[in-house]
Amino acid sequence: MAQNYYQKEIETMPREEMKKLQSEKLVKQVKHVYENVPYYKKLMDEKGVTPDDIKSIDDLHKLPFLSKADLRDAYPYGLLAKPLDECVRIQSTSGTTGRRVVAFYTQHDIDLWEDCCARAIIATGSSNKDVCQVAYGYGLFTGGAGLNGGSHKVGCLTLPMSSGNTERQIQFMMDLNATILCCTPSYAAYLAESLKEQGYTPDKIPLKAGIFGAEPWTEEMRHGIEEALGIKAYDIYGLTETTGPGVAFECSEQTGMHVNEDHFYAEIIDPDTGEVLPEGSKGELVFTSLDKEAFPLLRYRTRDICVLTRKECSCGRTLVKMAKPMGRTDDMLIIRGVNVFPSQIETVLLNEGYQPNYQIVVDRVKNTDTFEVNVEMTPEKFTDKIGEIIAMEKSLANAMKTMLGINPTVHLVAPKAIARSEGKAVRVIDKRKLI
Amino acid sequence: MAIKQLTVFVENRQGAVASITETLSAHNINIRALSIAETQDFGVLRLIVNDEEAAEKILKDDGYIIKITEVVGVKIGDAPGKLSSALKVLDESKINMEYLYAFMARTEKHAYVVIRVEDNDSAENALRSAGFKIVTDADIEKL
């Protein structure tokens, strides 16, 4: 199969040249950040590092890390490296104010992000002759915006569907002959199910490729979706902190995702010591934005557990490959594509006058995540009227929806009904077996 | 005058009610009447017992969530139409009921109805004026 590249020179660049490019960009970037982001300058000063110490990409390990906590401390403008009048866009993660990430983009940043997404689309064997149905959410969420931009860059006819409204998705897909589908893997599986129910067999479905990300999925799920839709399904990785989807993307080999390392330099570190680990080691994935202007995070700890490899790829790309993330170093859950921290549930319970005794149960039923929260009833809230207790469950579910952006089912349970392991309550039961 | 009802939050799982009644029997608490309301998730067990204070303490010590609520107890004849006539009194007095349950006495030819309303005094007055006998905790103890 002929290999298509969006930016061939970069995507197939020899290792030494890539290192040179990364080094040039990093030297410039560190200077830019040091001069424009007092928050990071302080971190560097504390570590005794100056921009002069960074002469090549090999010096990256000297720089301090950034974590989600830094993003919270610096919210909203503390990590901004460009004047606001040069910024053209924000994107944000779902979730509560406490955990919300707001990322800023200049036009240059948007362009490089969309280039990354264009590389991902082209890597599926697609071209400007394709019709690209973007069924990721549009708005603050990066999914819709990123793939929409990438699709434009490639020159596809873009269907900006956003998420949901399955009837309409199917109608546009069939009537306008969509050939590429971009959405979360669970929504792809759901669409496949709906298409089947309406009597569409894979040979009647015009799609040929899917670009699925924003939540963990298994090889089994991939095969299921590929079979049901008659397509090849490609993984895509990204996070709002670095830019959005397109930080890494899958090629025809489907054995991991090529990191767009001319823009985002990936490291694997020991999550406990912070030490950089050699290629092939399992550890925490860390990204450095080499040339983003407005929100250039240096050594951002993703909390994703991952492995990097530079083994030669049959697609011809020389970009380093990352495995599907194998877990998290924190307790974050991804439910229906939304990041959920157990501490957010705790906050809601305390706000609503409950004890922080709860258990989150996540499962996947018919390819859709189920999200239940068991909460212990308190003597103060208890009443002999059953209608009032049901209303309490509903009101808790609403408060959680406001906090998280997704709707849980809340069950009030008896005190101590929540399973305890070695005396410690088990806060999360994830039955999805995604890893 | 109202009688004291013990309400217990119960998990919706096998044996949940049995473990409560076993605990009570182990402490010689006699259950006079009970009713259960349930959803898919949980149940609310309402009990009239001979010694609600002792029962409350025992169950609390066992980790249960308990609430004591005052409810109206009324004695009615054990014959067709007697319950209706009592309920008609409340209806005519525009007294709204949350729930009710009934039980029979062992020796007397009477039935007892437990009624949960917002305002016990008005309900009792209305029933009393219509000639019904209101049951007290003392009566319950004697049953």
Task: Please characterize this protein's 3D structure.
- The complex is a heterodimer of chains A (435) and B (143).
- Chain A is α/β, with parallel strands linked by helices and 435 residues long.
- Chain A folds into two domains: 323 residues, ANL, N-terminal domain (Rossmann fold), CATH 3.40.50.12780; 97 residues, GMP Synthetase, Chain A, domain 3.
- Chain A is built from eleven helices and 22 strands.
- In chain A, the strands form five sheets. In chain A, strands 3, 4, 5, 6, 7, 8, 9, 10, 11, 12, 13 and 14 form a twelve-stranded mixed sheet that branches.
- The radius of gyration of chain A is 23 Å and the shape is globular.
- With 143 residues, chain B is α+β, with helices and mostly antiparallel strands.
- Chain B has two domains: 67 residues, VC0802-like (2-Layer Sandwich); 72 residues, ACT domain (Alpha-Beta Plaits, 2-Layer Sandwich), CATH 3.30.70.
- In chain B, 34% of the residues lie in helices and 39% in strands.
- Chain B contains five helices and seven strands.
- In chain B, strands 1, 2, 3, 4, 5, 6 and 7 form a seven-stranded antiparallel sheet that branches.
- The longest helix of chain B is centred in the first third of the chain and has 11 residues.
- The two termini of chain B are 17 Å apart.
- At the A-B interface, α11 and β19 of A face β1, β3 and β4 of B.
